[in-house]
Write a structure and sequence with these properties.
rod-shaped
Length: 79
């Protein structure tokens, strides 16, 4: 997930950062008004894909874990 945001921040052109500095924005203002909106727009698709993947894998994992749990409960009950 962090990789999604890192790639989004790296994809913002350095000229955008230089232009924010040249118009008198502080580093915090340039991050808030220039870098962050562009980085989020770039990284949002891969971030949402990661969230969807985690949701899918969680349901698969819970189905497998439930079957294993029931098998262990059956073994301990009848022994």
């Amino acid at each position: 997930m962090a990789e999604s945001f890192r790639s989004g921040f790296e994809a913002v052109p350095s000229s955008q950062i230089e232009l924010a500095t040249s118009i008198g924005l502080s580093p915090l203002q340039s991050f808030r008004y220039v870098i962050l909106p562009q980085a989020l727009a770039i990284s949002l698709p891969s971030f949402s894909a990661n969230i969807i993947f985690l949701l899918k894998e969680t349901s698969v994992f819970s189905a497998v874990a439930l079957a294993d749990l029931m098998y262990v409960a059956k073994l301990t009950h009848f022994n």
